[in-house]
Amino acid sequence: MDSRRKIIHIDMDAFYASVDQRDFPELRGKALAVGGSPDGRGVVATASYEARKFGVRSAMPSRQALQLCPHLIFTRPRFDVYKEVSHQIREIFRRYTDLIEPLSMDEAYLDVSTDKQGIGSALEIASAIKKAIREELNLTASAGVSINKFVAKIASDQDKPNGLTFIGPSKIKSFLEALPIERFFGVGKVTAAKMRQLNIHTGGDLKKLDESTLIHIFGKTGRHFYNMARGIDNREVQPNREVKSISVEDTFAKDLIKRSEVTDELYVLAAKLSKRLQIRTLSGKTLTLKIKFHDFVQITRSQSFTEILSGKDTIYRFACNLLDRAGAENRKIRLLGLTMSNFTMHEEEASDYARQLSLFDDDEMSTR
């Protein structure tokens, strides 16, 4: 582990909702959901912190969000505005380093091991970036600072909103050992439940298991869990990573059997995938359906089209067609996933919206 690296993870606080509250004073201090609708259709893209107090979260169906927060206000996403603000944030980053790896419009890794202004302290640079975002854009960001991407990302999530957390080399071991297993990125609800059954509740518990045991229990992700518990992450910040595909998937606590249950979940996934494509200004021509059955047998079905696929309804329709070809009738389904690939966009746009390849092949993505 290279203790000389200085990595910052910047994560904007409730980005879409915060931009809308900034631009529309009547929304400030209100429980707000960007995306979805008051008639219960669609899913929430981002919830304001006022809404999160009621349990409203990103990717939550509007119907469920309204049950938790009946006075919730819905706004239509303004992706052109969010994209412009994202560019402004990126320009602030470039004052300090050119080694920037965007994960989405509102999140990025920065390698400031050698910073442009010669400040030397990653903590001071992170503080300066947060100050500039607040004063120039009237928004807040949370930052994590450490010696690698994995620990920096966990650190940025420690004190939201408007947080700044530094986890130095001497603190990584004790910090990760005390961290609840649910807080490790890549450990979703299903995996966390399985770990708790094995008496794994913290990073310290996870660290007691050797690599071969973890691989035996969790498959290929066991190696990632082994490294996570020890804070090992040698990935470099990659500013020009090309986008090859965008994926969404969910593992279900209860297996799906009825076709109506499966198609309902496919609609939710299609909405999530459509949002992610919109965020990155991407359109694709190849759609892939992934199904994992209760016995862990996994299949995929793909189809390529001459025209680009866009919009959740179109994605959903073709996902259902792929389901018809999958031979999944009367089989218990524990996981569904959708992937869009074969993108059509300008090369420079793809670089601008390069996203991190997933470190973990897990059951869900957590968003705070």
Automatic annotation (TrEMBL):
Enzyme class, UniProt record, top EC level: transferase
Site (Substrate discrimination): Y16
Residues binding Mg(2+), per UniProt: D11, D106
GO molecular function ontology, one term from the record: DNA-directed DNA polymerase activity
Organism domain of life: Bacteria
Chief site of localization: cytoplasm
Positions of the UmuC domain: 7-188
Cellular localisation: Cytoplasm
Cofactor(s) essential for the protein: Mg(2+)
EC id: 2.7.7.7
Xref: InterPro entries: DNA/RNA_pol_sf, DNA_pol_Y-fam_lit_finger_sf, DNA_pol_Y-fam_little_finger, DNA_polymerase-Y, DNApol_IV, IMS_HHH_1, Rev_trsase/Diguanyl_cyclase, UmuC
Catalyzed reactions per annotation: DNA(n) + a 2'-deoxyribonucleoside 5'-triphosphate = DNA(n+1) + diphosphate
Keywords recorded for this protein, A-Z: Cytoplasm, DNA damage, DNA repair, DNA replication, DNA-binding, DNA-directed DNA polymerase, Magnesium, Metal-binding, Mutator protein, Nucleotidyltransferase, Transferase
Transmembrane segments: none
Active site location: E107
UniProt-listed Gene3D superfamilies: 3.30.70.270, 3.40.1170.60, 5' to 3' exonuclease, C-terminal subdomain, DNA polymerase, Y-family, little finger domain
Signal peptide location: none
Entry-linked Pfam families: IMS, IMS_C, IMS_HHH_1
Biological role stated in the UniProt entry: Poorly processive, error-prone DNA polymerase involved in untargeted mutagenesis. Copies undamaged DNA at stalled replication forks, which arise in vivo from mismatched or misaligned primer ends. These misaligned primers can be extended by PolIV. Exhibits no 3'-5' exonuclease (proofreading) activity. May be involved in translesional synthesis, in conjunction with the beta clamp from PolIII.
Assembly, per entry: Monomer.
The family this protein is said to belong to: Belongs to the DNA polymerase type-Y family.
Protein name: DNA polymerase IV
Species whose genome carries this gene: Albibacterium profundi
GN (gene name): dinB
